[in-house]
Amino acid sequence: MKLLVCVDLSSSMPNLLAYTKQLAQSLNASVCLLHVTDSQDEMLGYGGVFGEFPLYIDPKELRQEIATRFKHEHQQLLACSQQLQADGLSCIGLLVNGAAVVATILKEAQKHQADMIVVGSEHKGLLMTLVEGSTSKSLIGQADIAVLVVPVKAVAV
């Protein structure tokens, strides 16, 4: 069995990894950790890098900022993958650039022949759900394989 585990590198990720470890061990499954990052807005040269108001940024500085962020995200993902490997699991980590997060997750699930998609979910307020949407709800509606939504704040580490 192959699990595609979507990670956002947030502070709740250790809870998702703890759950993933238990699940993978009980199912004798291999794990593919997937982090989807998006630089499309940043590539335009306007805002997005630091989440502030749109403003023009020097393209050279912008490329450096994106490269630095990608390197940091890759290092975090590698550390998580190595942690699960140290626990005896077969695990790889993938950092993929994609503007459409749900479509990218589904594409990677198919590409890696995943049997299940595992995604963490933190309760968002109504306003944030309306503004940002819900990745987990979209995955459930669009995936043709099982999607397991883990309430990451409720999982004990």
**What spatial order of strands do you see in the largest sheet?**
3-2-1-4-5
Q: Give the structural class.
A: alpha/beta
H and E order = EHEHHEHEHHE
State Rg.
16 Å
Largest sheet: 5 strands, parallel
Principal-axes geometry comes out as globular
Mean pLDDT: 83
Summarize the amount of helix as a percent range. 40-55%
Number of strands: 5
List the uncertain runs: 128-132
Q: What name goes with the CATH superfamily? A: HUPs
Number of helices: 6
At CATH level 2, the architecture is 3-Layer(aba) Sandwich
Beta-strand content: 15-25%
- The span between the termini is 24 Å
CATH topology: Rossmann fold
CATH class bucket: Alpha Beta
Overall domain count: 1
Please tell me about this protein's structure.
The protein is α/β, with parallel strands linked by helices and 157 residues long. The protein has a single domain (2-151), classed as HUPs (Rossmann fold), CATH 3.40.50. Helices cover 46% and strands 20% of the residues. It is built from six helices and five strands; from the N terminus they run E-H-E-H-H-E-H-E-H-H-E. The protein has a five-stranded parallel β-sheet with strand order 3-2-1-4-5, sandwiched between helices. Strand 1 (2-6), helix 1 and strand 2 form a beta-alpha-beta unit. The longest helix has 28 residues, at 59-86. Mean pLDDT is 83; it is low at 128-132.
